[in-house]
Amino acid sequence: MDIQEVLERFSIIAGLNIDQAAPWTSLCSESIEQIRVHVKEGVDVSKNSRRLGAAAAALTFYRYIMYKASGGGLESFTAGDISVKNDKKVSLQIALAVWRDAKSSVADLLNDEDFIFERIESI
Fold first, then answer.
1. Which string of DSSP letters, residue by residue, matches 52-96?
2. 6 with 59: CB under 8 angstroms?
3. CB 61 within 8 A of CB 13
4. pLDDT per residue over 21-46, tens digit each?
5. Residue 120 reports pLDDT greater than 80
6. Are 43 and 97 in contact (CB under 8 A)?
7. What is the pLDDT of the chain when averaged over all its residues?
8. Which helix (H) or strand (E) holds 14?
């Protein structure tokens, strides 16, 4: 997975130009590492780097939206008769959907650690 490709894809998903996305390079790097540690044994990472990189970019986008939603910043503004409000909850739902979609597209390459099957014992 190439950090520059992940950063460029993240910038597209986030609607940022590459200069605006650049401060988020470390977040891209962290996402790449998180994806990398979950790759199944025997998977050729270099052969699947574009798919895995797309997932890393989507994970970066999800984290970016979480960080932006948790901080301050502009939530709404009014100019004359026009009023614009940023709904952080909707933004987070969309970002999570983007991440889940990307994750499902590489599910064959990653270890599934989201599912737990446990036995319930009766008393």
1. HHHHHHHHHHHHHHHHHHHS----EEEETTEEEE--HHHHHHHHH
2. no
3. yes
4. 999 999 999 999 999 999 999 999 99
5. no
6. no
7. 86
8. helix 3-14
Separation CA 105–CA 107 (nearest Å):
6
Predicted confidence (pLDDT) at residue 77 exceeds the cutoff of 90 = no
Query: What span, in angstroms and rounded, lies between the C-alpha atoms of 12 and 16?
Result: 6
The SS3 of residue 39 is strand
The contacts of residue 22 (CB under 8 Å, 6+ apart) are 7
Give the CA-trace dihedral at 108, 113, 115, 119, to 10 degrees: 130
| Contact present, 99 and 61 (Cβ < 8 Å) | yes
Judge if pTM exceeds 0.70.
Answer: yes
Q: Report which of 113, 109, 115 is spatially closest to residue 53, judged by C-alpha positions.
A: 109
Q: How far apart, in whole angstroms, are the C-alpha atoms of residue 73 and residue 77? A: 11
